[in-house]
User: Which sequence fits this backbone?
């Protein structure tokens, strides 16, 4: 957010205080030379069609120039009349040098033992190189087209199995955004289970502060009373029962931490027993590594109901890229493997008992069978999700953290159960040894009574400890009472680190190499010898026990990768998803240690490079959108929607207009919109659209007249999900603003059609979320990570998200509605991607990207419109950056639906467009600016060829049931089988176009998925060995 960091006479103000040494925020460093030729420019590397191809495409659509096309497409009333003021574009080597100078301002030589849910971790290099730095894993879309996503689905199933095994619960989802968000989702599960009648929720005061803040924020919007109980030892031991203070029959759920924020691991049995008597659901925030040593939530006599947490310390993000390891070791003395990432992204998890399955948020991978009876995987129970149930969905979640979940699963596979247990025991041993040395000296005292890795220490003189810590470059957790400090250890702690910590905390320091007493761990550990020691095995499936060599692991990862279609294979023309180029140069900085080694709660003075980058990115986004401030806290587009709506509600509440709680949403909106409005405590009222795709202004006016004093906002996507720029957008915004204090929320999902051409903040919008994983090039990762920062006009800025670790007065959000993410700046470690993209493109390049996105869409429209009905166009017959093909008539004429076309496209080597959204039985196509004319032609050829196949069905050449579309996709196993018995040739089945050759053929690894079978026979963990995947 702009208040975090701002320019003042070429000085940088960090959190309201001038630094002793000024840092000049130069938009271009003195060493940077501007590009002076197209050869050095990144713009033609990002834009797919060449200049000559653009001319040919313009001729096809009967326009003389790009400018003429834009004038025919975007209403004149909203087109920009001035130049966007961004830095002039620079080339790729220059931008990496520029960002390196910023990164060097982050003081990553400091060692952070702050904990609070964030730990240093060594990520195996094979996982880093072959997943995180591999576009085959980073550029696929969410696996809705399961037949060409079996690799990621298998990996996510492994993640779910890992979580279920370690928590001993029945079912887990395929990741959530972060631990705090997962806790809030667990709270909503409790609320829904009790039919929203029990409007109280209870939380331990020993939860992490950020978790408490997020759950409290979510409760406030839903009208749930949020109470905190004293999570002391007496309460957990049952000597002071919770029922003495709270009537648990009034509470839908209880959240406890295990271990808690102070490091204590308590026996959960007394609390769980109390809760069961009143049917109060128990949610446990836990740590997967800890669960290798302690009794999991699902093994208590009275089983805990939900477990949540983060898989961050399971190597869930990047360290150095391999080419930098030697350089960094030689010159910077950095340790490898500290995936803290200034807060994210990291994969969270949620597991629960089976009776709560259909209340779970997010995506769940499950087993099923394909059309030929073979075992297959797909996303299960999708009827719970926002794209189907809208405001009645279990959650608004769309993006999760699939890429990070896959990395965490591979971490567990690589180490196996014994390796994970060994890592845990080493960490635990070091924590116990540190506690012993501190207590033996007697100056300070460890008050954590049953630790795994974290110690809370009562110190004699805090200033003395802090001075020592700073002298050796160590960050500790300093409690607000000024009397306690916290230390959290991890797998990266060396003997030298441990000795430094002992010295800082005034313990008995040992020699350079620590020698532990014989049987020290067994004798000193209260966990291993106590009632909560883990007695059961975990990760027993052979999958977690056969890939411990690097050779085997790399082959396994490659085998999975080869099952999936990503942008390395072909265009992915998903409407409303913007699957554009994720350039290598944009991705490289995410592996730099100066970005990945920063704990989110370090002092701001140690993260000056991050703050400068965030500040510049905010200013650029404001310039591009016409807004005044940006918060980067939301971790996804859906979370951005929620945050933006909460800003609006907080603004209205500040004006004593609490009664405004209706959110008007067009029926064409993405399902996250109504789901987010519901989560924000608003009531959704639908607004109709006209046959041309525009908002029905008369219906909108009738809603405004009927609910005038209750209207909180209009939530609109622009250009619409129908692919058109509504000519009346200014008038529509004015209609809302005439309705008292009502606001306009403009969904930024389609911002890729507007860069440098028009700005939401200029034509009437008050707030938008921006999908950085769409318009600004963060890759989709097969279902996450994403980023959904919210941009607001000036009057809403003070209501933006706050954070309990970064005080409101320093963020200058004194009227904030609360907290949405565990980290102050969300998934900060992927922000360099968008920063680099904007700097490489500059004003001219970004405008060009939107122009070519519009050109590509209209070119494809022109090629397809004579064979497919186009559902919506603008008044001049053009579309924005996407368009919809109407497939509804084919059901009558040929028994073919849009999904059949989608599956047949797999035989042609393509991922399908968006199916049946926003109109059932249609295809929404968005080509993006990054695809060349030849690739557009190839995809159009595939659709035209499929249209001929539909005509063959209509003309009786093919049977209405047994035909290439209804049987699609065709697998290699079936086509090559002697059992092949279809009434059309193998060539027609598998090689239906001349450009599809055996050496380049992309084979789906399973036939068409049977979704109904999978949901009726739900299984969401790895199958037994004798049933393991045979494809």
Assistant:
């Amino acid at each position: 957010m702009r208040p975090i960091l701002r320019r003042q006479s070429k000085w940088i103000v960090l959190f309201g205080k001038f630094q002793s040494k000024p840092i000049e925020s130069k938009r271009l460093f003195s060493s940077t030379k501007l590009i002076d030729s197209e050869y050095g420019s990144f713009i033609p590397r990002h834009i797919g069609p060449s200049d000559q191809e653009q001319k040919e495409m313009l001729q096809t659509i009967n326009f003389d120039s790009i400018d003429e096309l834009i004038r025919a497409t975007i209403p004149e009333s909203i087109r920009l009349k001035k130049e966007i003021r961004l830095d002039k574009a620079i080339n790729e080597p220059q931008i990496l040098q520029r960002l390196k100078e910023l990164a060097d301002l982050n003081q990553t030589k400091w060692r952070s033992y702050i904990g609070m849910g964030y730990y240093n971790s060594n990520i195996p290099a094979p996982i880093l190189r072959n997943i995180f730095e591999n576009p085959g894993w980073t550029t696929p879309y969410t696996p809705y087209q399961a037949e060409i996503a079996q690799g990621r689905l298998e990996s996510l199933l492994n993640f779910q199995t890992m979580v279920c095994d370690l928590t001993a619960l029945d079912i887990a989802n395929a990741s959530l955004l972060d631990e705090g968000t997962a806790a809030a989702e667990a709270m909503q599960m409790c609320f829904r289970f009790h039919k929203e009648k029990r409007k109280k929720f209870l939380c331990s005061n020993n939860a992490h502060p950020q978790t408490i803040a997020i759950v409290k924020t979510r409760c406030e919007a839903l009208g749930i009373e949020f109470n905190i109980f004293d999570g002391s030892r007496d309460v957990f031991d049952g000597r002071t029962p919770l029922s003495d203070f709270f009537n648990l029959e009034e509470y839908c759920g209880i959240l406890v931490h295990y271990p808690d924020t102070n490091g204590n691991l308590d026996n959960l049995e007394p609390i769980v027993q109390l809760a069961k008597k009143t049917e109060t659901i128990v949610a446990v925030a836990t740590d997967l590594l800890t669960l290798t040593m302690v009794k999991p939530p699902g093994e208590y006599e009275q089983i805990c109901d939900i477990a949540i947490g983060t898989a961050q310390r399971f190597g869930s993000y990047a360290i150095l890229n391999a080419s930098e390891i030697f350089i960094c070791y030689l010159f910077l003395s950095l340790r490898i493997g500290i995936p803290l990432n200034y807060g994210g992204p990291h994969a969270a998890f949620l597991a629960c008992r089976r009776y709560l399955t259909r209340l779970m948020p997010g995506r769940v991978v499950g087993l099923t069978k394909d059309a030929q009876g073979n075992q297959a995987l797909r996303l299960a129970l999708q009827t719970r999700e926002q794209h189907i149930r809208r405001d009645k969905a279990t959650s608004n979640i769309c993006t999760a953290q699939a890429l990070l979940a896959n990395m965490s699963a591979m971490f567990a596979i690589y180490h196996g159960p014994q390796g994970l247990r060994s890592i845990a025991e080493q960490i635990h041993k070091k924590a116990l040894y540190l506690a012993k040395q501190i207590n033996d000296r007697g100056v300070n005292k460890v008050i954590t009574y049953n630790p795994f890795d974290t110690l809370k220490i009562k110190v004699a003189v805090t200033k003395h400890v802090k001075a020592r810590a700073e002298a050796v470059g160590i960050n500790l957790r300093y409690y607000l009472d000024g009397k306690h400090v916290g230390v959290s250890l991890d797998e990266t702690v060396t003997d030298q680190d441990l000795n430094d910590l002992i010295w800082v905390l005034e313990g008995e320091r040992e020699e350079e190499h620590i020698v532990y007493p014989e049987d020290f761990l067994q004798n000193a550990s209260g966990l291993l010898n106590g009632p909560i020691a883990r007695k059961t095995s975990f990760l027993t499936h052979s999958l977690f026990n056969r890939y411990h060599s690097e050779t085997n692991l790399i082959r396994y990862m490659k085998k999975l990768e080869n099952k999936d279609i990503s942008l390395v294979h072909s265009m992915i023309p998903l409407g409303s998803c913007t699957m554009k180029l994720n350039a290598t140069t944009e991705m490289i900085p995410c592996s730099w240690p100066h970005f990945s080694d920063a704990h989110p709660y370090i002092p701001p003075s140690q993260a000056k490079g991050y703050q400068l980058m965030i500040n510049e990115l905010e200013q650029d986004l404001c310039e591009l959108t016409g807004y005044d401030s940006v918060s980067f806290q939301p971790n996804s587009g859906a979370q951005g929607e929620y945050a933006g709506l909460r800003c609006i509600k907080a603004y209205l509440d500040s004006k004593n207009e609490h009664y405004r709680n209706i959110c008007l949403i067009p029926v064409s909106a993405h399902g996250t919109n109504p789901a987010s409005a519901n989560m924000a405590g608003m009531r959704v009222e639908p607004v109709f659209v006209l046959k041309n795709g525009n908002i029905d202004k008369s219906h909108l006016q009738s809603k405004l007249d009927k609910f005038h004093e209750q209207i909180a906002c209009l939530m609109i996507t622009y250009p619409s999900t129908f692919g058109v720029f509504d000519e009346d957008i200014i008038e529509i915004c004015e209609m809302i603003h005439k309705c008292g204090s009502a606001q306009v929320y403009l969904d930024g999902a389609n911002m890729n059609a507007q860069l440098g051409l028009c700005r939401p903040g200029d034509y009437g919008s008050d707030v938008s979320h921006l999908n950085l994983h769409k318009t600004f090039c963060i890759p989709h990762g097969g279902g996450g990570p994403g980023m959904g920062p919210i941009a607001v006009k000036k009057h809403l800025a003070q209501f933006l998200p706050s954070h309990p670790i970064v005080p409101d007065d320093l963020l200058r959000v004194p009227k904030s509605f609360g907290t949405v993410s565990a980290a102050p700046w969300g998934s900060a470690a992927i922000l360099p991607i968008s920063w680099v993209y904007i700097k490489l493109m500059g004003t001219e390049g970004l405008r060009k990207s939107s122009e070519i996105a519009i050109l590509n869409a209209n070119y494809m429209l022109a090629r397809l419109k004579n064979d497919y009905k186009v559902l919506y166009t603008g008044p001049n017959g053009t579309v924005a950056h996407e368009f919809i093909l109407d497939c509804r008539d084919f059901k009558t004429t040929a028994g073919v639906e849009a999904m059949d076309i989608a599956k047949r496209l797999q035989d042609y080597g393509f991922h399908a467009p968006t199916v049946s959204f926003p109109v059932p039985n249609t295809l929404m196509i968005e080509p993006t600016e990054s695809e060349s004319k030849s690739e557009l032609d190839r995809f159009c050829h595939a659709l035209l060829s499929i249209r001929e196949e539909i005509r063959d069905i209509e003309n009786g050449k093919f049977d209405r049931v047994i035909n290439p579309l209804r049987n699609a996709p065709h697998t290699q196993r079936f086509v090559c089988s002697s059992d092949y018995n279809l009434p059309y040739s193998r060539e027609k089945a598998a090689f239906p176009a001349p450009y599809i050759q055996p050496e380049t053929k992309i084979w789906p690894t399973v036939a068409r998925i049977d979704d109904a079978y999978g949901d009726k026979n739900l299984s969401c963990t790895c199958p037994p060995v004798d049933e393991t995947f045979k494809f």
Observations:
- Residues 1-35, 316-338 have pLDDT under 50 and may be disordered.
- DSSP finds 34 helices and 29 strands in the chain.
